[in-house]
Amino acid sequence: MAGKIKVAIVGVGNCASSLVQGVYYYQRKGTVDVSGLMFEDVGGYKPWDLEFVAAWDVDKRKVGKDLAEAIYALPNCTAVFEPDVPQTGVKVRMGKVLDGVAAHMGSYPPEQSFVLADEKEDELEDVVAVLKDSGAEVLINYVPVGSEEAARFYARACLEAGVSFINAMPTFIVSDEGWAKKFEEKGIPVVGDDIKSQVGATIVHRTLTQLFTDRGVHLDRTYQVNFGGNTDFLNMLERQRLKTKKISKTEAVTSIMPYDIGSGNIHIGPSDWVPWLKDRKIAYIRLEGRLFGDVPMYIELKLDVEDSPNSGGSMIDAIRCCKLARNRGIGGPLYSISAYTMKHPPRQFPDWQARQMVIEFMEGKRER
Question: In this predicted model, what pLDDT tens digit does every residue of 327-337 receive, in sequence order?
Fold first, then answer.
């Protein structure tokens, strides 16, 4: 028996809801007719070997509730595929707000926006104490896009508590040399930045770009526009919060290209919020290129997916690889699983290569 992996969560939104539901869903299913997983077994750890031990949020409807209740609370709107998550005994604590709330977020109906809790915020020493007391080994950062200060606040808490940090958001921490060095010096494995879904817009766009490159088609122009109805898209209506998100998504695609097509010929990023879509995300992707003899061609497609469960499959592998690294005494950024599950990892690799690196890491080969 590999034992449990003790996990803390910051931001009990749709992604957290899908992850928590997934742990109990796969526990109930066992190994019978398992689908939706890239790896069922990671170094002896199964999907249901996660134990949630701490959680933070800032929404009044979640703070103070058991995590099992909070994941279904408004404004969460993702698919409910495991409706009977048992009580966890983990009370959602009031997190540090900092820049975690966009100014416009409170001006929408409560079922679409949020209601800020009026409880005392946990300070850094409070978060560190909870992480230590709970025995947390891994903390997942699910704070909203653009929450630069908040993301770094929880990264500092992990450094002080000796807890691994998995950065699901596009604040550059794991891919920042300064932050990476701090975690490496303390022997703490970390994964980031910006979660890449199992089959989302980024991985599809990367795959098509790789196809063009491998088949000798010169890519001249490309775009990817996304919209959805969850609070992530509502938050991103404040365009100033999109700077690192656009960089993350754009570099995930351009890193595949062996040439520069110019910034004016590529556009990637969230475009709008459509409330009735709820947690559905729709992406339109177009690539224009030139075939043999410079004859033009293009590919255009539409991706329609439930957004948050799409990231759950990547996160559950990132957590288990992080635990393996802790078991082996490996500190600092984990290049293999970061490249495979994140848009802006410390080092970019083609997805086929990143997958092979992850398999080798799970088999016990050195991370570096």
Answer: 999 999 999 99
* 8 A C-beta contact, residue 322 and residue 136: no
State the sign of the Cα–Cα–Cα–Cα dihedral 349, 204, 15, 7: negative
99 CB-near residues (< 8 Å, 6+ apart) = 146, 147, 148, 149, 150
**Residue 204, number of CB atoms within 10 A of its CB:** 17
Q: What is the pLDDT of residues 130-142, one digit of tens each?
A: 999 999 999 999 9
Asked if residue 366 has pLDDT above 80, the reply is no
DSSP count for the chain of H helices, then E strands: 11, 11
Rounded Cα–Cα distance for residues 329 and 35 (Å): 31
109: alpha, beta or left? (left if phi > 0; alpha if psi -120 to 50): beta
H or E stretch at 302: strand 296-306
DSSP letters of 73-96?
Answer: STT--S--S-TTPPP-S-BPEEPP
* Per-residue pLDDT tens digits for 10-30: 999 999 999 999 999 999 998
CA–chain centroid gap for 329, Å, is 24
Give the C-alpha separation, 152 to 141, whole Å: 10
* C-alpha distances in Å from residue 204, one per residue of 82, 99, 207: 27, 31, 5
CA nearest to 262, candidates 299, 297, 202, 220? 220
In whole angstroms, what separates CA 22 from the centre of its chain?
15
pTM (two decimals): 0.96
Residue 1 predicted with pLDDT over 70: no
Half-sphere exposure of 10 (CA within 13 A, CB side): 32
How many CB atoms within 10 Å of residue 338? Answer: 31
178, pLDDT greater than 90: yes
- 241-280 burial, b for 16+ CB within 10 Å, e for fewer? bbebbbbbbbbbbbbbeeeebeeeebebbbbebebebbbb
